[in-house]
Amino acid sequence: MSQPSAPRKTLGRPPRISREEVVEKARRIVTEEGVDRLTMRRLATEIGSTPMALYHHLRDKEELLVLLLDDYTARTLHRPELPAHPRERVVASATAIHEVLAACPWIVEVLTADALMSTSALWFVEQIVDGLVGCGLTPEQAVHGYRAIWYYTAGEITVRTTAARRRAGDDRATYREQVFADLDPGELPRLAQVADRWTSLTTQDTCLDGLRTLVNGLLAAGAP
Amino acid sequence: MSQPSAPRKTLGRPPRISREEVVEKARRIVTEEGVDRLTMRRLATEIGSTPMALYHHLRDKEELLVLLLDDYTARTLHRPELPAHPRERVVASATAIHEVLAACPWIVEVLTADALMSTSALWFVEQIVDGLVGCGLTPEQAVHGYRAIWYYTAGEITVRTTAARRRAGDDRATYREQVFADLDPGELPRLAQVADRWTSLTTQDTCLDGLRTLVNGLLAAGAP
DNA sequence: ACCTGAACACCGTTCAAGT
DNA sequence: ACCTGAACACCGTTCAAGT
Q1: Shortest Cα distance from A29 to chain B (angstroms)?
Q2: Does at least one atom of strand C sit less than 7 Å from the CB of A177?
Q3: With an 8 Å Cβ cutoff, is B218 touching chain A?
Q4: Would the pLDDT of B3 be above 60?
Q5: Burial (CB count within 10 angstroms: exposed 0-12, middle 13-18, buried 19+), residue A111
Q6: What is the pLDDT of residues A37-46, one digit of tens each?
Q7: Where exactly are the structural domains of chain B?
Q8: CATH fold for the domain made of B80-222
Q9: What end-to-end distance do the CA atoms of chain B give, in Å?
């Protein structure tokens, strides 16, 4: 994605700003102050330049965010030792992707970019697809399986981080508790039954369990 | 959520704007022109008022969006005849929620609000939890199961609608195709093997299959 | 109580010009 | 080729005042 600063073909004014510098400064802003603070103007002043100079190195803000995601995953998504058993390899790969993304909630706005999140993650995608094939799925089923895993992962992170963001701004959570406290046990008996445990149940981290469950379902469907 | 216009306790200037009118006009803007065009200023002029008048009826834009989601689900999420078999009831309820949300992609920014999307959906949540209990899960397992289903659903819609939005703005899809065309079969054999089919495979709507797979996994895990 | 005008503190992006 | 200044066309929200 970031072309490795090829030798300049034509001569002209020497660049004062590099793509790398832009991404690096953007990363610092995001990690230190949050995505909300990353604006083209803020980034420009951080670099000691003008907003417009950035548009010579980036098509638009969207491209900056994708670059940032690539940079982050390349930096943190290291290939681990994976279990030999194909099913465990699938679970471990999916967990690795999930862990890295869950650790940087700012990614949420970008990560839904496509069925694959970033080129740095391709190796993990390979492991998941290959693991599923190793369990008896056809390559086509394995791709669909990977997609199901990706949907689950992206959904888990999106829901959990926006819920957390909302909890920080209090009062809206109170409304939800109110709704659950006022449930009519005649109409919604199951929800009324678990109403007092709802918050604690939905705050638990059950992502790994869910992932395992999904993988089990995939294998049961593919290799009956 | 929208208190049913209770009789006014104190007298004063008669209101010229009602919460209902605000939501109605906002809905029209969103359905006719897209979420991006829904701004407080635009909404105010549509109503024939000023931006500030809105803040007398709404806390902020966030509240407007939640109101809009409630309004939409109350309007479109009608309780269907559900299958008697508990597993099929789970699948049918989840599918109903998914269909309604998938039909209005603008919701994506709001729908991740919490573990439940809207009070109008509570009945469907009840059906899912009850169906899972009917299949042998404990109430706690059923709630976790519902959550897994919600993550999957939210992820599917988020990923698919942002992917579609991106496809409208072309060129970034081309980059992904380039990546897949250039895959090294030595390093990533499985991905290289399906590379030419990747786009068609990941564009297929396999949401229902995935949902069934997940539910199967949940039942296998809960009632071994 | 309800609404308005004017302002604050910002955005992303484009255009025409400078070196 | 690379960068700048000034501007365009917006945002959400607050404050103080009006009726």
Answers
A1: 24
A2: no
A3: yes
A4: no
A5: buried
A6: 999 999 999 9
A7: 80-222
A8: Tetracycline Repressor; domain 2 (1.10.357)
A9: 41
